[in-house]
Amino acid sequence: MSAAAHSVVEPSTTSKRAAATLVIVYALISMIPLFWIFATSFKTPPDSIAYPPKIVFTPSIEGYCNLFTTRTRQTPEYINSLPPATSFCDETTRKRNMVIAGPSNFLPRFVNSLIIAFGSTFCAVFLGTLAAYGFSRFRVPLADDLLFFILSTRFMPPIAVAIPIYLMYRELGLSDTALGMILLYTAVNVSLAVWLLKGFIDEIPREYEEAAMIDGYTRLQAFRKVVLPQATTGIAATAIFCLIFAWNEYAFASLLTSGTAQTAPPFIPTIIGEGGQDWPAVAAGTTVFLVPILVFTILLRKQLLRGITFGAVRK
Amino acid sequence: MTDTTSSILDRAAEAAARATPETLASRVRGLSDRMVAWLFIAPTIVLLLAINIFPLIWAIQLSFTNYRANRPNEPIKNIGLSNYSRILTDTDTWIAMQATAHFVFWTILLQTLIGFSLAYLIDRKFRGHAFWTTIILVPMMLSPAVVGNFWRFLYEPQIGLFTYVVSFFTGIPTTDILMLSNVTLAPWAIIIVDTWMWTPYVMLICLAGLRSIPDYIYEAAEVDRASNWRQFWSITLPMALPFIMLAVLFRGIENFKMFDMVNLLTGGGPGSTTEVASITLKREAFEKWRTGFSSAFAIILFVAVFGLANIYVKVLNRVKSR
To answer: Where does the sequence pass through the membrane (chain A) (predicted)?
Structure first.
């Protein structure tokens, strides 16, 4: 067990303290960009581009207002003729001589991200569980070659894959559709799912199913009622890894979607205000987009190592 | 409820099985193991063949032609190997390969040094090390595109936080620190972001390597009065080496095909100073629409990655047996 490591050769208190200081300094420095995203999302546009950069500022939700709306510039006379503002967003927009024209594309793009990420994760984990069980329990001819083939598809450069996929989807009418993206992400994620889940299923003793089969279960019943419940943790961890990949993916999304099926990552960089990038709105979009991942990272922290090494390193 | 129903059904099926001849019985009892194995594995293989292998074969075929995807009605001419020979002799490709090599070399060097040092420090097991490890891991889980995009803001010449901090410590005026548009600085701008993002990855794998070293080896070294320095070079480093290799190979492959972060930060510019291979590929395929030519380039990249992946899996299996 890792807890018992270095029990005799325990590092001295001084060296521990020095190590702690260095690690904490690194951790804090590496958090600055994320802190800055969060802080910027609560700044007003003038505050966000102030020099020197403002660390203390009056928080405002203008960035979030701008993220979810589109606005048009109007004359002061027109704005004065309007009925009183009903919401905070209305009010701040009017102060900048603008009125809210309608909802922005952020919400639909965010929903696309959700649909595509969850859809592809479900398919990848479903297929991956079956295949992993197959490889784990049966003598499959050329199993090592097949497993290598499955993994190697994940190493393909996305742009290299995107060229023929682009042509194929154009022929099949899958360009810029959620279905096309789900299929593509499933194919990328299934390799990770198979490798990770094979590791998890390998850890479940065969004896359990064998006992169940002696009791009269068929192979499929044993799989469903004995193996699947035992593999729940592994399946959940795998699902989160697939979800994070699909959620974060940019290369395919930016080349193969342009409108209806566009996900959030290619959309967020295109959020612009008057006279350039609307940084508070971009920061707000980034914050909204990152929060689910932060939650998942904390949930996953014990399984991270497994996930990033395709199940090879288990601690 | 359903459990009892299904168990009644099972029992009924079993009774029926007992009453039927042998071959039929095995069918009622369920599919044979071989059938189950193929039934379980086939869908994955079929999907990968359809989404990965079929397009790949198509790309190979296109790589011998002058096809352009934006002019689908033009006749396709077979031009043999000339796409390949053009790529290998073209100076632009070599410039792209140099930019890629510069990026891969420095990111891996920095990430391995910082990542291993952090892992070594965390392995001192000070109080709260688990918490700080989780904090350090956060950047690598985030979307390189979305976070990379935000770094453009940090790099802004006047108002960016990064430029401000650098100018604060060096005294260089902020207007002179053009991280993304200066020819010398831009390659470093992308190296910094990648290092910030992926050092935790190397750290996590190195940490696993350090923790895999059994205590008794250090105890024996202690008995032999080996100095700390000696212990590090003859125990710690060699025993963690397969793990470091694993991390280096994986980062090497990933950064060799780097696209998202660079595309958003510099888009390959200024000029083509940060034009790594994937950016060149995107420009050729989706901006100049030289589909045949870019397919050939894609195949070359793929062969290179495939070779690296082969080595990676070998190291992976070696680490696995530890």
So the answer is: 20-39, 114-134, 146-166, 178-197, 226-247, 279-300
